[in-house]
Amino acid sequence: MIRSFSFSDLDSILQIEQQSFPKSPYDVPTFVHLRWLYPDTFWVYVEGERGGEAPQILGYIIFSRDGHIISIAVDPQYRRRGVGKELLEEAIKTLRLERVWAEVRKSNLGAQTFYLKLGFQITGLVPNYYGSEDALIVQRTSPAP
Ligand SMILES: CC(C)(COP(=O)(O)OP(=O)(O)OC[C@H]1O[C@@H](n2cnc3c(N)ncnc32)[C@H](O)[C@@H]1OP(=O)(O)O)[C@@H](O)C(=O)NCCC(=O)NCCS
């Protein structure tokens, strides 16, 4: 199930964040700020919330209403099960986004493969976007085949 982020999800999100972006994880003030900036488009993927057991946050996505993916991450234990794809496709579908784009570290081959698999193309490069590392811009302008 995908739903809006709630502050009670913060501990789980921070754990996912630290495992997903060890070089530059967002901290609590950053997530609070992002929630303020994107109150309707900061979503989490939750399992077990309706079943009575303790809900488990498997991943999250933050994006702008014009299609900029600010961040997406999935708990390493739950990767390659379609969670990232579902978060991204749900964002595109719900907001009827005709163009979506993201920055990806040049060294992040897993995320690049993920985006390319979902129909994105590499459209640019921003030198030193991450300090000493370049970012690739990935973009999708039409539904994936
Ligand atoms: C990128 C990320 C969000 C993908 O989440 P996910 O839930 O594992 O992705 P999905 O299971 O939906 O993958 C969909 C398809 O993308 C491709 N893919 C995803 N991750 C991949 C990887 N690490 N290597 C190669 N292909 C990959 C596969 O083709 C996959 O389909 P398949 O498993 O049936 O072969 C996740 O790996 C992650 O959190 N990474 C760390 C954070 C990050 O880099 N975020 C993006 C920053 S811009």
Question: How does this model look, in words?
Answer:
The protein has 145 residues and is an alpha+beta fold. 30% of the residues lie in helices and 28% in strands. It has four helices and seven strands; from the N terminus they run E-H-H-E-E-E-H-E-H-E-E. It has a four-stranded antiparallel β-sheet, with helices on both faces. The protein has a three-stranded antiparallel β-sheet with strand order 5-7-6, with helices on one face. Strand 3 and strand 4 form a beta hairpin. The longest helix is centred in the middle third of the chain and has 13 residues. 26% of the residues are buried.
Which key features would you list for this structure?
145 residues; 7 strands; 4 helices; binds coenzyme A; four-stranded antiparallel β-sheet; single chain; alpha+beta; three-stranded antiparallel β-sheet
Summarize this entry quickly:
By secondary structure, the protein is α+β, with helices and mostly antiparallel strands. The protein contains four helices and seven strands.
Order of helices and strands: EHHEEEHEHEE
Give every kind of bound small molecule, once each: coenzyme A
Regions with little confidence, pLDDT below 50 for 5+ residues: none
- What is Rg? 15 Å
List the SSEs and their pairings:
Blueprint: E1 2-4, H1 10-20, H2 28-37, E2 42-47, E3 56-63, E4 69-74, H3 83-95, E5 100-105, H4 109-117, E6 121-126, E7 135-140
Antiparallel strand pairs: 1-2, 2-3, 3-4, 5-7, 6-7
